[in-house]
Amino acid sequence: MSRKKTAVLISGRGTNMGALISAALAPDYPAEIALVLSNRPDAKGLERAAEFGIQTAVVDHTGFSGDREAFEREVDAVLKAHKIELVALAGFMRILTPYLVNAWTNRMINIHPALLPSFKGLATHERALEEGVKLHGATVHFVSAEMDDGPIIIQGAVPVLDQDTPETLGARVLDVEHKIYPKALALVAGGRVRVSGARVTSGDAAENTGDLVWP
Ligand code: GAR
Q1: What HEC string does 140-152 produce?
Q2: Is 112 a catalytic residue?
């Protein structure tokens, strides 16, 4: 089996990155985490990745005088130099331009801490509590030109409890993120998904029943 060479892009602590790395340790996992790239030199996740013996790279966005496309050209060059085939954004806090999005159409996935299309952007747990929703969760989707948009691969739902704070709710969502992201990457790397417009199908109805990760 040829494992898809995957780069994980991070900006921070990298717990989702850790979940992907752990999953990819299984010999039958269809992706290999070949590179962890951060736009922040001080990202905690870089140390975690190095502990796993994974190659790391830093492309510091502050070195490009606000020229987002120049930053992305450098990111793309690093990905190409490592012969990367798939990209998983895991808390990579840069708004992407069409340059990088178009270069990686259907080969770049992202995790967002909300049930999209609700609560795009930041502070998703605070806003979920403000709006009074009873179900919240996380989404893994292909990256498109719009922020936190693009064909949805997997969602995981969690209940919102009466006593929740943004922190307790966020911790419950993070647990579900760590479950669904490895699963989504496996589906994509294994060539088991079809994208048709906004819809992603994996062709197996029985298997799909497991895609709503319920607490
Ligand atoms: C995760 O909750 C991820 O869903 C979120 O950042 C966090 C990163 O945590 N991403 C976004 O908000 C992207 N819009 P991690 O570094 O521990 O994986």
Answers
A1: EEECCCCCCCCCE
A2: yes
Predicted TM-score (pTM) of this structure: 0.95
Q: Where are the domains of the chain?
A: 4-201
Q: Kindly report, residue by residue over 107-118, the tens digit of the pLDDT.
A: 999 999 999 999
Q: Which CATH architecture has domain 4-201?
A: 3-Layer(aba) Sandwich (3.40)
Question: By the 8 A CB rule, do 51 and 77 touch?
Answer: no
Amino acid at 94: R
Residue 211 has pLDDT above 60, yes or no: no
Among 9, 174, 181, the mutation site with the greatest number of ligand 1 atoms within 8 A of its Cβ is 174
- Pocket (CB within 6 angstroms of ligand 1): 10, 12-17, 45, 90-91, 111-113, 148, 174, 177
